[in-house]
Write a structure and sequence with these properties.
Protein name: Transcriptional activator domain-containing protein
Pfam families: BTAD
InterPro entries: AfsR-DnrI-RedD_regulator, BTAD, TPR-like_helical_dom_sf, WH-like_DNA-bd_sf
Strand content: 5-15%
Helix content: 40-55%
Number of helices: 25
Strand order of the largest sheet: 5-4-6-7-3-8-9
GO molecular function, one term: DNA binding
Largest sheet: 7 strands, mixed
Number of strands: 17
Keywords: Membrane, Transcription, Transcription regulation, Transmembrane, Transmembrane helix
Distance between the termini: 90 Å
């Protein structure tokens, strides 16, 4: 098309000029013609001749330009061809011989079918009859059956157990909280410290990749004798771990066994002190002592008492008989505990280890185990049999020391007596760590007045179901991360920088890959709000993002304004406390499970519980106090202190039957949530003529 256009441009004007005016030159003008032109230059004939000459000159310039461009291209092409390397005769002969050889081989080649995909390996199986290869472990790592964190890899069911254990941590903190005088500003309860970053990364990964609709399998299903699935991947008698990932696999086994053993009372894992030190390094003893189901021993002889059969009549046979009777009466089947020892203990006392292996759930030796199978474990958790088969095995959970310690933190039970929040020293926090109580902000952030500056109203509701409203109408926020940004900035009116936002919303992911994602999220949110109302909802100054002061009305800011008024109220304090309750329609970002949200949500809820408890204490009679306590229990039905007060108030009113019903319902609620009976302690006072017993 370009060539046709150039040819038309070159040939078109001459054809038109020749057809209309003839050739450009018909001879030189005569003297008479020159005299007439000087006397009257602007005649029709002279103007026609002048325009014709000008047209021919323009065409000549165009033809000259095209000619020069064509010659330049030709010169460059000739120069390139001149320097083009051509094969020598010897090279041409060698190329011909190689081509003939390839064609001859391909003509006689036997066509082979494509390789079949590797079959999955049965957990703990190295059957030589199965057609499996070492690529099975790689296929397992590519499947959606695990969660990769910065310090290792966890199977999906273990990650789900970690998430459930983290939820239990916050339920226990809610249960143990005791209301304070309302509106204490600057208060930082020690138990509101956020959970480790590894836990947040696991929860975030589960949220991004939810489980299939069929749900996760029971951790005890598919394993012999109710054995946790973490041990079901091993051979029935256990195995030895060698290779670069042996210690990492030992840490993974430690975490997964303790997690799976939470549903069963008693000891679920026995480990020698030497192995525990090699796995966790400088982990504090206070952490390991609070791990439920963990027994630390000095050697195999001491460990044998945890595996003695009840019928043997040795050692603690009487105690085992009592435990067996209790388990039979309560229909609880407790699997045999696992044992983790090192290679020195296994080779130094093989007879005792063989006796223990008979009754132990699984024996794991960190090193070679001559009496059993030995698995080679790499850093990614892939296993292979070091015996004659050399087959690939299942992928094991692998963790480094920091990650294992972080995950053990959510398993460890807290101290039974919570620290006094008033007497405890406040803990230093960063600018964006979820602080339990927002400090008083400058006046430009005060939410008391409705935002001005125009006729449009922009309102952000984060208490209850999060919503962004323009003139009272909800605005659709397409991205979940955008709603997270809005709630997070509402909880931090002073703003947050890029690093803090990405660490909170996408924990555990490489930060270098998240800056663009954050920019896209904020740009989409700004565009949607600007299109809806023409306002700018987020201000970006000095690398800090914040909700635009004076333009956004936030209900959380109004709530904290009410809390500050209640804290400074000199007269009519009950009215100020009632204002705190009225400003709280529901939990912060109700229904959302963002990993950074729990400390801020719990801090906000505690402010409301403080107001309910204060109004109950100031009530004129027991009936009004009971009403306020019941209202507080609707805000947090897991708080033990409010239940204790409500039960004592019912007893004071003489309604013992309702008090017993409330106590039993509370115990059932804790049990349904996964908090064991030993934690469900509800202390009640002793009333005249009716002694109450703490419920366990």
């Amino acid at each position: 098309m370009s060539l046709l256009f150039v040819l038309a441009l070159l040939a078109g004007p001459p054809v038109v000029l020749l057809s209309l005016f003839g050739p450009p030159v018909r001879g030189w003008p005569t003297a008479e013609q020159m005299r007439v032109w000087v006397v009257q230059p602007l005649t029709e004939q002279s103007l026609t001749i002048a325009l014709t000459i000008a047209a021919w000159l323009v065409w000549l310039v165009l033809a000259y330009t095209v000619t020069i461009r064509v010659l330049t291209r030709l010169r460059a092409t000739v120069a390139w061809l001149r320097h083009l390397p051509l094969p020598t005769p010897l090279q041409a002969t060698a190329s011909g011989m190689a081509g003939a050889a390839v064609l001859g081989v391909s003509a006689n080649a036997v066509t082979t079918p494509p390789p079949q995909p590797p079959l999955p390996v049965t957990a703990g199986s190295f059957d030589a009859s199965e057609d499996t290869t070492a690529q099975v472990a790689d296929a397992t790592s590519r499947s959606d059956d695990g969660i990769a964190v910065a310090g290792g890899w966890l199977p999906r069911e273990v990650a789900e157990q970690i998430s459930a254990a983290a939820a239990l941590v916050w339920l226990r903190r809610r249960r143990a909280y005791r209301p304070h005088p309302p509106g204490q500003q600057g208060r930082e309860d020690p138990d509101l410290v956020p959970l480790p970053a590894t836990v947040a990364a696991v929860r975030n990964a589960l949220a991004d990749h939810p489980s299939p609709p069929t749900g996760a399998a029971d951790t005890s299903a598919g394993s012999p004798q109710g054995q946790p699935a973490a041990l079901g991947a091993l051979p029935p008698a256990g195995a030895g771990f060698t290779g670069p990932g042996a210690l990492a696999a030992g840490r993974g086994l430690l975490v997964t066994t303790l997690l799976a053993g939470q549903r069963h009372p008693g000891v679920s894992l026995v480990i020698t002190r030497t192995v525990l030190a090699s796995l966790l390094g400088s982990a504090p003893d206070a952490l390991t002592q609070r791990l439920p189901g963990l027994a630390v021993v000095d050697g195999i002889d001491e460990a044998s008492r945890f595996f003695t059969l009840p019928s043997a009549g040795r050692g603690h046979g009487g105690q085992n008989h009592v435990k067996r009777h209790a388990e039979q009466t309560t229909h609880i089947v407790r699997p045999a505990p696992a044992l983790i020892v090192d290679e020195a203990a296994a080779t130094g006392n093989p007879e005792a280890l063989a006796d223990v292996a008979i009754t132990a759930g699984t024996v794991v030796v960190l090193g070679r185990w001559p009496a059993g199978q030995t698995w080679q474990v790499d850093l990614a958790g892939h296993t292979s049999d070091r015996g004659a088969t050399g087959r690939a095995g299942p992928r094991l959970c692998v963790l480094d020391q920091v990650t294992a310690t972080d995950l053990l933190t959510v398993i460890a039970h807290a101290d039974q007596t919570p620290p006094d929040p008033v007497a405890a020293d406040p803990m230093p926090r960063s600018a964006l760590e979820p602080v339990p109580c927002l400090r008083r902000q400058p006046h430009r952030h005060e939410p008391g007045a409705r935002p001005g500056g125009g006729s449009r109203r922009l309102e952000l509701r984060v208490l209850g179901e999060p919503a962004l409203l323009v003139d009272g109408q909800p605005l659709t926020v397409r991205r979940s991360a955008a709603m997270q940004v809005l709630v997070l900035l509402a909880a931090h009116p002073d703003g947050a920088n890029t690093q803090h936002l990405t660490d909170a919303i996408w924990p555990g992911l490489p930060r270098r890959s998240l800056t663009g994602r954050l920019y896209t999220t904020l740009s989409d949110l700004r565009a949607a709000v600007r299109t809806a109302c023409g306002l700018s909802i987020i201000d970006h100054t000095d690398d800090r993002y914040r909700l635009t002061p004076g333009l956004v009305d936030v209900d959380l800011w109004r709530f904290h304004h009410a809390v500050r008024q209640a804290a400074t109220a000199v007269t009519d304090a009950p009215t100020a406390w009632q204002g705190v309750i009225d400003a709280y329609p529901g939990d912060l970002a109700a229904g959302r499970n963002w990993s950074w949200l729990d400390p801020i949500r719990e801090s906000t809820r505690r402010q409301v519980l403080d107001a309910h408890a204060a109004l109950a204490d100031a009530a004129p009679d027991a009936q009004h106090a009971l009403a306020w306590l019941q209202a507080g229990l609707r805000v947090d039905p897991y708080n033990a202190d409010l239940h204790t007060r409500a039960v004592n108030t019912l007893i004071a009113l003489g309604d013992h039957a309702t008090a017993d019903e409330l106590r039993e319902a509370y115990a059932r609620r804790l049990a349904d949530a996964g908090i064991g009976p030993s934690d469900a302690v509800l202390a009640t006072a002793t009333s005249v003529g009716h002694a109450t017993v703490p419920t366990r």
